[in-house]
Amino acid sequence: MVLSNVSYAQQRSIKGKVTTEDDPLGLPGVNILLKNSNIGTVTDIDGTYSINVPGGNGILIFSMIGYEKQEVDVSNRSIINMTLSEDISALEEVVVVGYGTVKKSDLTGSVAALKKEDFNQGAIATPEQLLAGKMPGVQVVQNSAEPGGGMSVNIRGVGSINSGTSPLYVIDGLPFSNSTAVSGAGERFPAPRTERSPLSSINPADIESIEVLKDASATAIYGARGANGVILITTRNGQKGKMKVSYDGYAGVQNVANKIDLLDAGEYKTIINSIIESGGGSNTDKVDDFTGDGTDWLGEVYNPNAGIQSHNLSLSGGNETTSYLISMNYFNQDGLVMNSSFERYGLRFNLDHKVDEKFHTGINLSSNYSKDQFTPGGFQLNEHAGVVFAGMQMDPTLDVRDANGDYVISQHINVDNPVALANGKRGIGNTYRTFGSIYGEYFFTPEFSFRLNLGGDVSNQQRDYYIDRTTIDGLAAGGIATIMHGTASNYLVEGLFNYKKAFDKHSFNAVAGVTTQKFITSRFSSEGRGFPSDATETFNLDLGNPNLNVIGSSKVDNTLLSYLARLNYTFNSKYLLTGSIRADGSSRFGENNKFGYFPSVAAGWKIHEEDFFSSIEQTVSSLKFRASWGRTGNQEIGNYQSISTFSGGPTVVYDDQQRSSTQPARIANQDLKWETTEQLDFGIDYGLWADRLYGSMDWYVKNTTDMLLSLPIPRSTGFTSQLTNIGGIKNSGFEFALTSRNINSGKLKWVTNLIFTTLKNEVTDLGGIDRIVTGSAGATSQIAIIEEGIPLESFYGYEVLGIWQTGDDFNATNDNVKPGDIKYLDLNGDGTVNTDDRTVLGNSFPKFIWSVGNTVSYKNFDLYVFVEGVEGAKMLNNGLIDTYFPAGVRRNRYAEPLQNRWTPENPSNEFPSFVNTSSQGEKRVNSITVEDASYLRLNTVKLSYHFPANRGIFSAATINVTGQNLFTITNYSGMDPAINPNGGANFRIDWNAFPVSRTFLAGISFTL
Question: Which keywords has UniProt assigned to this entry (predicted)?
Fold first, then answer.
């Protein structure tokens, strides 16, 4: 009994509960440590703990990532409850970098990181939408607003003409392939101009964080695939504790945000007949009287109140040795054009297991099925064109169907009935994709380990298209059926040695290893025509005319073998140094350049750690300078470009029989290699007033050399050009990011996030070529110019001075002009406006991009408001081209120009008469049709309410309402200034664009 009493007097048991301001029910996983000892414990799932304190006195330290550390004196107490406050400093966050992680405060490269709570809110179909407008230096442009539509992502500009410009995506350590299993859509089916997003198979709700590697120091570790930047996606993992069941979902409606204002039936009849009477057409083209109100063709093919819904269910948990997460997802989005939709079912399984202290293993696996329903789109013309094109140009005085119930077509316009196109040209895509990786890591010592990663990605896709007899194409061909099937796969094997060591004032973090990845794509297509009826669609191609069958197939592959190494060194927690090198061998490179070498070096200085800084540390709480240099490559040059290959040649007659032939497709270039990008970056990371305000600033210059161009070669070789590494492009700019914790006290919190980005692009070398004039959309060609000293693919056309008026001096020009015609600038003053008078009309690179996000929290309510803008970008509006230079006088057009057209009674100097549209030749690319695509947009407003937690029902629950794309301020007259059906953020052409939605959602989330 005496010994027992002595023991009790020397050791005190302390119990208590740890909570937060937001969750008074308990915070699990908090570390509690007795200061200056190795005695500690962790709070359980209810936030409770118990710890024995020898001697009955001491100081307890409460700590957890994301919360401010607290110390409390035991002072002979037996119960100590603690409330932790959120740590407002973001500089100690751990961010993912290539082949490892690092504290944000120790970064030497330019890396932008988004955690789950920072993602874009609302209806999110693909991961790219999560980061749109959220990161400086990262431009995200929607190529198509159709469900699951493709997106262009450019990081710090564009550095290539003929090679890929998309960043490398890495999901849980597995480099992703951007190629799709099936591309194209058949000769007569104008499928969307751009493919579905390569990431459309990933459930955005499964993503925990996204890191974007921007400078060469950060991307050089990915070598020949790092020139366009790298986007690292990390999916969620389970956390220690009992199993949690979580659900979040939303449902809502979408409406067309901006419906193009076209001539209605009455305006159409009056204005078109007036143009014809003024000499703009034949009397046989006059619009006849009609009954009723006519037809709003876009209204007929648009889907009002299109539905959208998403459901995510996950189970997660773990213990000291194992953590797991299982998630299931269903997403369904109806398109704003009838008979278009995107549906996805997904399943993910993530597991990490510690076999013992020396061996860890884990798996990240995802499998999904998606179904697309396509509506005709693209850049084709007339009866082959898409639904929106036809809806904009069709005669509004006509009815949808005649008295017999058949679709009405115009006798004056070579355009199909828009409703017939939407119903009669049907496309269905089915995609099955499974990807993931498994790893095993063995620790020789706690500091030294070897990790083996095995990964794979297999996508099987089939697209079925059928064009029936209700359409012009289908009627002429007796039905057209096309089936396209493809498989795209890649396989990864990599072994990595990792070493971490800290002693005295030194800290090392090193990685070295070898990695190989193989990509294989195979495709098969078949087409049949002349079917007895439309009943079988694509289900029995044998019923078609065998003489009209067309089949095709292909298979391509490429392989990468790489060696990599990186060393991070820190001295005295102040001075940072990073060096890396990667050697990439690619089957795409020429025989004389099989391997490329990509080094980088970066340094950082934490000035706030210096003693002399202490005098201002109350104001400037953190300050770090960064500088980096490195080289990266772009191996997206296509397969087999360096060797001689053969393609199908003309059909020949031999022994009275037709025979197929082959012919050389290109001349070999054994010196062909990657495009090289060298980048220099200077950056500052800062924090003010205890990091209540923090962010970063970067200035960079990025030079691309050895750019791929087709140079002329002697015709004696049998070819006229050869793909060669020559030419260069420079990108430079300034990036600014700021987070401000405006209010962080009590029940009211207000956080503002601001980004600002500038970009300057310049072609520096064309290998002796004076200029390249390129680009086409339908009947519009020679749209852009590539020339040294100006931005890549600048719009190239005619400057419009106004409109020829009755009193003008017509002797000053040799052109066939009349009052009411467009007046172009005669640049060289020779009296004739022709191709020699074209000039640069701007480009699609914005002068700057900005966004502001605000989150205001009061008690249980959160209000999120996100505004974004783009300034100085130009876009070619092909809808305006069709208005000013119509294929026929009876085509419908934008209303405003025709309503205000020049007449003797209305001598407009802005809009022509539209009588002599082709008298000067159709100068389609001009300062009218190349429009300013600058805009300011209220992108998202979201209001959330968090229910007080009730342990008997749920541990957390939230309801919310969201509005997206609520309004846009812009001078752009087309569908939307933020969209690009041409499929590239740096060269934007708007034509036949899928309408952009305004979306309203209601959602709920809870955790059991």
Answer: Cell outer membrane, Membrane, Transmembrane, Transmembrane beta strand, Transport
